[in-house]
Amino acid sequence: MSILGILVPISLVLVGIAVWAFFRAADGGQFDDLDSPAIHAILDDEPRVPGPPREPPP
């Protein structure tokens, strides 16, 4: 039972750090725009310029 005296405070500290990190990210705008990064990943490619036509192999 004495291990609970160590594990409970450690877990409370870890939960507190996780809550702090979440609110810091939320206040910093981390979760403001969730759709644009997915669209930018698709549209990020540069358009391909067609080259000269290939000659067929002999």
Descriptive overview:
By secondary structure, the protein is an all-alpha fold. The chain is built from two helices and no strands. The longest helix is centred in the N-terminal third of the chain and has 24 residues, at 4-27. The relative contact order is 0.06. The mean pLDDT is 84.
Main traits of this protein?
58 residues, 55% helix, 2 helices, mainly alpha, elongated
SSE topology:
Elements: H1 4-27, H2 36-43
Beta-strand proportion: under 5%
The secondary-structure class comes to mainly alpha
Helix content: 55-70%
Task: Give the overall pLDDT as a whole number.
Answer: 84
Number of strands: 0
- The N- and C-terminal alpha carbons lie at a distance of 82 Å
Count of individual helical segments: 2
Main sheet attributes: strand count, strand direction, barrel closure: none
C-alpha Rg (nearest Å): 26 Å
Provide the succession of SSEs: HH
Low-pLDDT parts are none
What gross morphology would you assign?
elongated
Summarize the structure.
The chain has 58 residues and is mostly helical. It has helices spanning 4-27, 36-43.
